[in-house]
Specification:
Largest sheet: none
Structural class: mainly alpha
Order of helices and strands: HHHHHHHHHHH
Protein name: TetR family transcriptional regulator
Pfam families: TetR_C_1 (PF02909), TetR_N (PF00440)
DNA-binding region: 31-50
Distance between the termini: 38 Å
Helix content: 55-70%
InterPro entries: DNA-bd_HTH_TetR-type_CS, Homeodomain-like_sf, HTH-type_Tx_Regulator, HTH_TetR, Repressor_TetR_C, Tet_transcr_reg_TetR, Tet_transcr_reg_TetR-rel_C_sf
Domain HTH tetR-type: 8-68
Length: 219
């Protein structure tokens, strides 16, 4: 699939400056005026290249996904769709984690012109359907996985939701025995994410088997 997303040299400078400012400003407080100041120009010079923040966010999201996910590969006939999907969803998560508030940026961006994300979604559908999954089940699997990944990344990048400090912040934690037991099981963010990822993929596998059974019964 040909890539139609190609920012100009000046647009790339603005995108990179915006991404550098994230660590200092955060996504909510990032403004085109701040970016202009960082680049040593007046705000109208930025508006010439990006008419508003929403358009800039689209390009920032594309930059993050494209540069950090790399050239993802199609599923080979020898690879299960489950392994392919777990591997590539993990790449997607790592791409967003590579920048402060990366999850919020990509989640707020439009699928188009975010070409790389659109290509990834299309390739995911191809991989699932070529393994025998119907489009309705594939849609449910992908919507669930992408939303789960967005939620996990956004929570991981929010300090107030850090699970490492959660036990000290739970009011009267002694009365919440089940919650505390679950928290104290520990596990890194990577481990917890992959556990949830596998649960969703397992559900997709079961749904796929169920669909096949229904088709056989109808015959």
């Amino acid at each position: 699939m040909k890539d139609n997303w190609e920012p100009t040299e000046r647009q790339q400078e603005i995108i990179k400056a915006a991404l550098e400012l994230l660590a200092e400003k955060g996504y909510s407080d990032l403004s085109l005026r701040d970016i202009a100041k960082k680049l040593g120009v007046q705000a109208p010079a930025i508006y010439w290249h990006f008419k508003n923040k929403a358009m800039l966010v689209d390009y920032m999201a594309e930059y993050i996904v494209r540069t950090k996910m790399g050239d993802f590969t199609s599923r080979g006939s020898e690879q299960s769709w489950q392994d392919w999907l777990i591997s590539h969803i993990s790449l997607f998560r790592n791409a967003m984690l590579s920048y402060p508030d990366g999850g919020r940026i990509v989640a707020d961006a439009h699928l188009f012109p975010n070409g790389t994300l659109a290509k990834f979604m299309e390739e995911s559908f191809v991989s699932l359907r070529s393994a025998g999954m119907d489009i309705r089940t594939a849609r449910s699997v992908m919507l669930t996985l992408v939303r789960y990944t967005f939620g996990c990344v956004i929570e991981e990048q929010a300090d107030e939701h850090n699970w490492e400090t959660l036990p000290q912040r739970v009011i009267k934690s002694g009365e919440l025995t089940n919650i505390m037991e679950a928290i104290n099981l520990g596990g890194s963010d990577d481990e917890n994410f992959r556990s949830g990822l596998k649960l969703i993929v397992t559900g997709g596998t079961e749904a796929m088997a169920c669909e096949k059974t229904i088709v056989i019964d109808k015959k």
